[in-house]
Design brief:
With 324 residues, the chain is an alpha+beta fold. It is 43% helix and 17% strand. Strands 11-3-12-5-8-13 form a 6-stranded antiparallel sheet. Strands 7-6-9-4-10 form a 5-stranded mixed sheet, with no helix packed on it. The longest helix is centred in the middle third of the chain and has 23 residues, at 177-199.
């Protein structure tokens, strides 16, 4: 959990590494799983919040449209798994849906409700209500584990989900039910992490070590505690206790993006969420984010989100209320 500073902003002392496998534990406290069986054609919104989503496709084909940290579309097929931050809303639709269709919220049912084997689209939706995990997912973007290209990690995930299916048949009052669900979620999360490490050519016992990852995350924690300060690669490297060159290399290998690009992206996302939550004007947002002018802020915002702050805020409000 995060603590609060005197001004009420969070202190990220326990920020989970964006590649969770480099840490001995993954805290999945409060995680829960639900079923979904949307009928094609469909267009649903995954609402925003301080949590992360895990989507595990059992049947059918659907499309996940993500706008942050990068705008992309992921076609999900049976056996595919994807994890995505909930800090911004995303759209989940069928490939044949009308692009102009009005989205609605995805109907979810308890895992104890038996799945309809005849449903054309079936998936399990996991929700991890941990802000630190959501921030981590926001940094690296969607974690996609396709059925065919990451077969071994994918197989382990579905083996864990079979245990979840078995657990769903038992009374919730059974001994340690929440703990078992949490452990299943940890297995899923760690194997998603392993797939990312494998794609980047990083072995868990070599390459980036635990000490290095902790140093990089220490720098990110310092940034998140004062996100609107004038951060440079040199200052981040100092927080990590590394040279500028080594920090930039280790950061890019661990996170997948350069340091300044990453913190600029996070800073814009944080101020964008504040604009949504508090109604900050563009001028106020530019001032709080440390930009020299509102014009400079708008240019950076448009480069990151592909639209002006005013249009983005309107679009996000419409998405969260199911109007686009």
């Amino acid at each position: 959990m995060t603590k609060a500073q005197e001004d009420g902003s969070p202190v990220y002392d326990d920020l989970a590494p964006p590649i969770a496998g480099v840490t001995p534990e993954v805290d999945m406290g409060g995680v829960y799983f639900m079923r979904a069986a949307p009928s094609p054609p469909f267009c649903h919104v995954l609402p925003a919040g301080n949590f992360s989503y895990g989507l595990m496709v059992q049947a059918g084909t659907l499309r996940l449209r993500v706008e942050f940290p990068f705008s992309e579309e992921i076609i999900l097929r049976p056996g595919d798994v994807v994890g995505v931050s909930g800090l911004s809303p995303h759209l989940l639709d069928s490939p044949d849906s009308d692009a102009r269709a009005k989205p609605s919220f995805l109907d979810l049912s308890e895992m104890t409700t038996p799945a309809d084997p005849e449903a054309p689209v079936r998936l399990i939706v996991g929700v991890a209500p941990q802000e630190t995990i959501a921030l981590s997912n926001m940094i690296v973007g969607p974690i996609y584990v396709p059925f065919d290209a990451a077969a071994e990690h994918n197989r382990r995930i579905w083996h864990a989900l079979q245990l979840l299916e078995d657990e769903a048949t038992l009374p919730r009052t059974d001994f340690h039910h929440p703990l078992i669900v949490r452990r299943i979620a940890e297995i899923v999360s760690l194997n998603m992490t392993r797939s990312v490490l494998a794609r980047r050519g990083i072995r868990e016992n070599q390459g980036i070590g635990f000490a290095t990852s902790k140093a990089v995350m220490r720098a990110l924690r310092a940034f998140l505690n004062e996100p609107y300060e004038a951060w440079t690669v040199e200052r981040l490297a100092g927080e990590a206790g590394m040279s500028r060159t080594r920090f930039a290399e280790e950061f890019r290998q661990l996170i997948g993006q350069p340091p300044i690009e990453t913190i600029s992206r996070i800073r814009l996302m944080m101020i964008a969420r504040r604009m949504m939550a508090t109604g900050l004007s563009v001028e106020e947002a530019a001032f709080e984010a440390g930009y020299s002018s509102s014009a400079a802020f708008v240019r950076s915002f448009q480069k990151q989100f592909g639209m002006s702050p005013a249009r983005w805020r309107k679009r996000q409000a419409e998405k969260e209320n199911g109007f686009v």
